Amino acid sequence: MTSRRLGRQTVALLRPPSVVSYANIGGKFEANGPLAGHFDLLCTDSFFGKDTWEQAESAMQQEALTRALEKGGLTPAELDYVLAGDLLNQCIGTAFGLRDFQIPFFGLYGACSTMGESLALGSLLLSGGHARTAACMTSSHYCTAERQYRMPVPYGSQRTPTAQWTATAAGCCILGDQGDGPYITHVTCGKIVDMGITDVNNMGAAMAPAAYDTLSALFRETKTGPGDYDLIVTGDLGALGHAIVTDLFRRDGVDLSRNYQDCGMLLYDLEKQDMHAGGSGCGCSAAVLNGYLLDGLRRGRWRRLVFAPTGALLSPTSSFQGESVPGICHAVVFSAGKEGET
Amino acid sequence: MTSRRLGRQTVALLRPPSVVSYANIGGKFEANGPLAGHFDLLCTDSFFGKDTWEQAESAMQQEALTRALEKGGLTPAELDYVLAGDLLNQCIGTAFGLRDFQIPFFGLYGACSTMGESLALGSLLLSGGHARTAACMTSSHYCTAERQYRMPVPYGSQRTPTAQWTATAAGCCILGDQGDGPYITHVTCGKIVDMGITDVNNMGAAMAPAAYDTLSALFRETKTGPGDYDLIVTGDLGALGHAIVTDLFRRDGVDLSRNYQDCGMLLYDLEKQDMHAGGSGCGCSAAVLNGYLLDGLRRGRWRRLVFAPTGALLSPTSSFQGESVPGICHAVVFSAGKEGET
């Protein structure tokens, strides 16, 4: 037995994979934020020394993987799989970033849930006995996202109060079948949830129902509640989405108010940095996890943590065609100890 | 033990998952091709009754999954996972096509290798003991691909002789941990291979080195050669890419000439249908597999078959920025019997 299926969405891993190494990269705004001390590299040049922002995003993924390998004392040849994706059309941030590493590669598209999706699949592959090591990673870049999803940056478009700021960041987490933790003990795979939100400047509202759906499944299927975790972190819902998730659980009589945070609210000082509803982008939750959160787990600040990044599965084309915004949220449970079930 | 890692890229599945059901959908040109008798649905309306081609592509995925479920006597609630992706920006063909099914979903981006990637990950999840059923699927649409990658269809742009024709097609394969076969016995995960091809109208040449790389790894790591398989099928290399792969192996003293075909050459009558180098798009290999190839395996025409679809990991943006075209190829071995190792 490698795992125990607890319900429709949650699998308990009986041989929990361990975090072996991790690294994150950030840009100028991340350097000015409250988590600056938890980055491996902060680069104020938005081009990362390259000619285009897309190339810069690839360079960030390349650098995040290189640093994670170095910190873990590993070579690319020692990685059995890399699972990665990003927000760019056809995921070119990932394809060009990973091109030179010669590692067997599974490309993912989970929008801003990608860090959770890659950890979910990576830990399932490892605990299933198919691999000893897997790198899970993603990135986003403010300037590539703006020109692809919204307006060219030089236009200086005004933002709505519900808008979020795409992080210029990348994160990489290397999992192993051996290691000293933290361990991934549970994986809850998300379903697509679409409550009909059509405002593309309000991703928090669009994705919050997916976070609620996945966290509800996790709690229900593991027979746990918020009190069983030291910290529950969604990924880039921002202030508005965070409030909606809190409210949806309150209606169920579940109190999230004491230990629930969101990566989009952690990465920046929302008021001082004028970040409106908060951070977003695949790189937001990836950078917060592969620095601040894993640092805290390793140092004993938290023993048990739910990491649940959320993604909005839209494109500019789908929005122009009048579609609403489907969301998804993949959750993994990190634990300082190896207990597969509780 | 769930699997045995035979080398850097290949895993032999000791509990080979079985094909439980499959279905495919095609459009007008697929209906006029030589495989028309191997489709579940052929629709001559390029809009599939919807308002836009993107919605049509979603409808095709929806229909392919619905038919595969029906043929297998399954409900969506009986599927543990669906693994899918497509070529559209942010994979909206998949997101909107699967939105209503409420199945735990892992989104993939492997370009035209997606059918292979989904089968690879799906069979690893099943043989790892994490699930009992998984649907693996993808789609492409000529008109959505043309306007996204090339020119709006009404322009009637002239095509180069090396160009391929994006299939309007979708395919879905449902795998189970129980079943009467065919079985997936081996998975070879591809690496990104980029030989510097920059001609975006010559995808066959760009992807052929990836097919050569993955098939070489499969042969080397399983200690087999082309003669050990009844059929080896790459996915949408077309006539030119097929010739390049054959030639690359010939240089190694390996003769592929007797049992090697390509989905891009099977789907259409290249001469009569004026398809230039052949078919392409995620839906090409998906439709050929989930009809012609699986029909043949079930009917005993072939006992052992390598399915190795190829993807080009470019975007219009990467090409405009002068980048070359990285390729990837994921291979799975189908076998009429359950032999995990040979």
Automatic annotation (TrEMBL), chains A, B:
It comes from the Bacteria. Coiled coil: none annotated. InterPro entries: SpoVAD, SpoVAD_sf, Thiolase-like. GO terms for molecular function: acyltransferase activity. This is Stage V sporulation protein AD. It comes from Brotocaccenecus cirricatena. The gene is spoVAD.
